Amino acid sequence: MKKQFLKSKSVCKVTFTLPKEAVTNATDVKLVGEFNNWNVNEGIAMETVKDGSFRKIVELETGRDYQFRFLVDNSRWENAWDADSYVNTPYNVDNSVVCLSNGATKTATTKKATTLKVPTTKKTVKKATTKKPVAKKTVKKVTATKSPVAKKTATKKTTMRKSSAAVKASTKTGTVRKTTTRKVTATKDNLKQIEGIGPKIEKLLNAADIMTWAALAKTSVKKLKQVLSDAGSRYKMHDPTSWPKQAKLAAAGQWDKLDKLQDQLMGGK
Description:
The chain is an alpha+beta fold. Helix content is 45%, strand content 19%. Strands 3, 4, 7, 8, 9 and 10 form a 6-stranded antiparallel β-sheet that branches. It has a 4-stranded antiparallel β-sheet with strand order 1-2-6-5. It is globular, with a radius of gyration of 23 Å.
């Protein structure tokens, strides 16, 4: 389930998807839920896609979660395969849930972590430049305190990623700072940013020791299918073919390329 939080207002564009395996030969699929008061007559018509699935992009207000289901040919109900979670109802059926209560906050936090690095570096350089009339001792102190910090940053980065490319990058000051900004939050990445992965599948991957985008990128499709298969028939139907490729772009911070790729994908395929 793809989500795009808008900066200009408290709205999120949610891409609802129902794969062809769930609709068989259906000709009409409507999206019904709390956002239209469960009114079937006001159901949002889903659009057909070339691969036989149904898709619709809907703008929803953030700050809360929404329950929903799909009405197929006005005769049967289906749940989303990539819902954030599922809620049992008094009618002994599950409703799908899309969570928008805290997604915008996470996005804002990530961006702050990125922008704070640049001004910190500039302030340090200005102090060293403006204090020219001061004795050379001041310049030596600035250099002495900065060198071990750079070494520690490179060491932490190398330990977390174990990447030879990151070690080479440590010789260039600018490259070290950019790499360090991304690695700080790499202990456990938000795997739900990968198209086709919801909260429950994320827990399955974490249980299989797949905690980061980098780890997911290195995991074979065969192993991912085995993890889903071991979890039961509900998860066995998911196709993880594109997950490693998406994770590789996320780990590299290539968000524009990831967005373009996800626009072409349906449910992570």
